[in-house]
């Protein structure tokens, strides 16, 4: 009688290595040896008849077949984990919660919420990746992400975490004393600006304004360009130039008069920060626990913490 092979054999090793980008890191996550992970992956590749990883001395990357397999397995793995957690019936959320967040969200959301989450649910492990670029959640193995509302795909579930954002052009009092205050956006070419480069596209952000109901953008002058929003704020505080930032990201600096708003009549307001995730992931107890704690800790002014289900 022919024995059928286990279709799940090697998949946990593959998922861990694909998400970590390293057999050593995957082994630590699975609490096995790197050799065991390597052997499990090799056996899976032999069974499938195709290589899944490109191995170098410093990095493990996915082949095209490996990337395609990861894209299909990640959602299914999340469902399996959620089913096992529900079947346990303990009512205590467990597992690894992986979040991708922009730099802006670290002090506003991550720093206050994660300690509360750990105190309330110590069995939930947390991994946070700080990156401003848009991320494919299932493809990168994340449970959820935090982004500005307008940048979230329409098929995701979105939960409001902050009030709406009013964009601001800011500068230090010292900079304004030396260089003067711009009165209209057209004055910006006469000033120095700290500019922001998008990590994924490489494009330098054009500052957005509104006048008489019409939107327009300006490419400011400036010899400083950065792809980290925290450094952008730091350089503005140091008097190196004007910066275009979200008001919620510099509330402390504005309150302490380290920064001052200019061009206020011309600045737009957009959606705030939202937690977002695929609809199929919302039943996971660990994600539900994060949402509940975020509502308690952050107490959003807008929407009173209600989920916005976007189809």
Summary of the model, kept short:
This protein is α+β, with helices and mostly antiparallel strands. The chain contains ten helices and 16 strands. It has a six-stranded mixed beta sheet, with helices on one face. Strands 7, 12, 13 and 14 form a four-stranded antiparallel beta sheet that branches.
How many β strands by DSSP? 16
Strand content: 15-25%
| Proportion in helices | 25-40%
Enumerate the strands of the largest sheet in spatial order, edge to edge or round the barrel: 4-3-5-15-6-16
The string of secondary-structure elements, in order, is: HHHEEHEHEHEEEHEEEEHEHEEEHE
Principal-axes shape call: elongated
